[in-house]
Design a protein that fits this description.
With 57 residues, the protein is mainly α. It has helices at residues 4-32, 39-55.
Length: 57
């Protein structure tokens, strides 16, 4: 019974470290590129989707 609090603390610590790492990587990703998708960058994707859908009909 004495080992359970240590296991719980370890799991909480691993979870907290994961949150911190996720936070830092998302901050880095938002600095590298704009957060919003502009219409000009989405246009090639929509053209590709329209052409591939018509091929499968």
């Amino acid at each position: 019974m004495g080992g359970k609090p240590d296991i719980i603390r370890a799991i909480v610590l691993i979870f907290a470290v994961g949150l911190v790492i996720t936070g830092f990587t998302s901050l880095q990703a938002s600095e590298d590129r704009p957060a919003t998708v502009t219409e000009s960058s989405a246009a090639p994707v929509s053209i590709y989707m329209a052409t591939t859908r018509s091929e499968f009909r």
